[in-house]
Amino acid sequence: MAEKVDSFTFTVEGVPVAKERPRKAKDGHFYTPQKTKDHEELIQQFWMANGKKFVEGAIGMTVKAYFNIPKSASKVRVAQMQNKEIRPTSKPDTTNVIKLVEDALNGLAYRDDSYIVRIVGEKYYSLEPRLEVEVFSLSTLERRVLPKMKEDD
Questions:
Q1: Which CATH number among 3.60.110.10, 3.90.226.10, 3.30.1330.70, 3.40.50.880 corresponds to the domain 3-145?
Q2: Cα separations (Å) of 32 from 16, 26, 37?
Q3: What is this structure's pTM?
């Protein structure tokens, strides 16, 4: 059983991948590609290793995807990539990386991905490819960010 919390973060080691579209078999039925299944399971394993946390209600999600620095990059460009001055603009699409995370945690870390009402996704270069995932209750965020209103007497 998952522990109910206001927020949690965890890191998935390895190169981030995108959610692939369902494929159609020769007999006409659709199936999820094996690469997608494998990476959803990997995300679930890192979530479990982090303590099986669960957030209720309207939630927000932040996904930061760190990709390998290309071997062909010059020393100057490597430094710029590490300083986040140059960001990946190639595939995979940020939205497809986020969708893989959403689907992997669906029903485990939150009731349903329809409860996600705020998403931030970012791509970076790094010598250590990984996904950094944060899931948080929007009511908790609002309590931290929004000033309290005085009640009328």
A1: 3.30.1330.70
A2: 18, 14, 7
A3: 0.86
